[in-house]
Design goal:
Elements lengths: L9 H13 L3 H8 L4 H8 L4 H9 L6 H5 L4 H11 L1 H7 L5 H11 L1 H9 L3 H11 L6 H4 L6 E3 L4 H11 L8 E5 L5 E6 H6 L6 H4 L13 H11 L3 E5 L5 E6 H18 L13 H27 L2 H6 L2 H29 L8 H31 L2 H31 L4 H28 L2
Parallel strand pairs: 1-2
Antiparallel strand pairs: 2-3, 4-5
Helix pairs in contact: 1-2, 7-9, 8-9, 8-10, 15-16, 17-22, 19-20, 19-21, 19-22, 20-21, 21-22
């Protein structure tokens, strides 16, 4: 009998999983996920409704359920952990290292996290609690503790024998960490140098004593920049007292980059990466209702501005037709500036010393584009309604709004960041409010003054 070829990933594979689940064929489902990596399995489970995931996981044959939770979005992880229960979760979590366990307690929080830590032995619990003392997103929370250490006075031949006895190295090991008798960091020994050096040479002769190090408090944005700018595969994490704490590897940074890209994409609509597409109806509606309510408030503010010019709109109906043009052009211009400003802040490019120059540049761009497009829009409006005054008014309003949009695109993320708000989430709402209010106010105000 010919062997059955199993789809390994992608849409066909997911479709096969759903067909097996719909048919109640648990053996078939388990067969198709048997050799799948945990991140793939996590993404697959997220395509099923909430209430089916625990049953599917229980019958999948997967024993690494605690580590699987780390690859799920927060909502899905909490729900699945609740279904598993603390005893089963604690048993599955025994294979997690301290960093992974700290990350899992962060994801779960509350009673689940407390129950999980209570079932750890005292040494493991203290190790996890020492990591939790650092802020989320810092190097200490991202790092791995599975480092291979050697002494500077050891001979290269001795290190060779030591590695042969180990038989295996931790994943993504491109360098060994060199420490002294007290565990203080002294440098790194690249694996490539290790195998090309003379066997009689000492580690101290070959190691890089000036290797870049990362402090445990470094935030993830600084870490991403270091890895991307210097093309690093790994880097040691060293405490201020010189003690080696662990290492950060490139795959961790790639996860951060992916999370950041997903966050930026969803934040535009007030969502986040923990939003579950297949979450229950009420929970999903509640999350989105909050954002809709905020937008409704800003919409009423713009409507209130328009309401002040009812008489103007009644006298000149063309204004109602052209109002969206002014608001839309300002909104697009502001969004361009806002996106660049948010990226600049995330990459640490916007500093107190260059903010004013950047603001002046963006105002200049807004003014130039405003003049250009005011001529186009003003000319079209004037010819359309055979009213040159209307063309002049909408042209001036367009210039005003595009300059205001440029200013808001820089100022809004700076102000929001200072008060602890995420500019990627809150920025677009504030910017839209500014461009709508300024656009309507300038257009209708100028029309009231000069056309009636």
């Amino acid at each position: 009998m010919a062997a059955t070829e199993l789809p390994s990933s992608g849409e066909d594979w997911l479709q096969t999983l759903h067909e097996a689940a719909d048919a109640g064929d648990e053996a078939r489902f388990a067969r198709y996920v048997a050799d799948v990596a945990l991140p793939e399995l996590a993404r697959a489970l997220e395509t099923f409704p909430y209430d089916e995931r625990a049953h599917l996981l229980a019958n999948s044959g997967v024993t690494d359920s605690a580590r699987l939770l780390l690859y799920l979005n927060r909502d899905a992880a909490v729900h699945l952990a609740t279904e598993l229960g603390v005893p089963a979760l604690a048993e599955a979590a025994q294979d997690l290292n301290a960093s992974e366990l700290a990350e899992l307690t962060d994801v779960l929080d509350g009673e689940l996290a407390h129950g999980l830590l209570e079932r750890c032995d005292i040494v493991r619990r203290r190790e996890v609690e020492s990591l939790l003392a650092y802020d989320e997103g810092t190097a200490a929370r991202i790092m791995h503790r599975d480092v291979v250490t050697v002494r500077a006075d050891a001979a290269i031949a001795v290190v060779h024998r030591y590695l042969q006895r180990r038989q295996a190295l931790p994943a993504n090991t491109d360098q060994l960490m060199v420490i002294d008798r007290d565990g203080r960091f002294r440098g790194v020994l690249a694996v490539t140098d290790l195998f090309t050096a003379e066997p009689t040479a000492s580690v101290g002769d070959v190691m890089d004593a000036e290797a870049l190090i990362i402090e445990p408090e470094h935030d993830q944005h600084a870490i991403m920049r270091l890895f991307l700018d210097r093309d690093l595969l790994s880097a040691p994490v060293v405490a201020p007292d010189g003690n080696l704490l662990g290492r950060i590897i490139a795959s961790d940074v790639m996860d951060l980059v992916e999370d950041r890209a997903e966050h930026a994409m969803l934040a535009r609509d007030g969502l986040d990466e923990d939003t579950d597409l297949f979450a229950p109806l009420i929970a999903s509606a509640r999350k989105r209702a909050i954002w809709l309510g905020i937008n409704l408030g800003t919409a009423f503010l713009a409507a209130a501005v328009i309401g002040q010019f009812e008489a103007t709109l009644e006298a000149l109906v063309a204004l109602a037709v052209l109002m969206p043009v002014v608001a839309s052009m300002g909104g697009i211009a502001g969004s361009q500036t806002l996106s660049l400003a948010i990226r600049g802040l995330a990459q640490g490019q916007i500093l107190p010393t260059n903010r004013n120059w950047l603001l002046g540049k963006e105002v200049g761009i807004g003014a130039l584009n405003g003049v250009l497009w005011s001529l186009v829009v003003g000319g079209i409006a004037g010819l359309w309604y055979l009213n040159a005054g209307l063309g002049v008014v909408i042209g001036i309003a367009l210039i005003i709004n595009m300059i205001a949009a440029a200013i808001a695109g820089i100022i809004v993320p700076l102000v929001l960041g200072r008060f602890g708000f995420d500019p990627a989430i809150s920025g677009p709402v504030v910017l839209t409010t500014v461009t709508d209010v300024v656009g309507f106010l300038s257009f209708l105000g100028l029309a009231t003054l000069f056309l009636l």
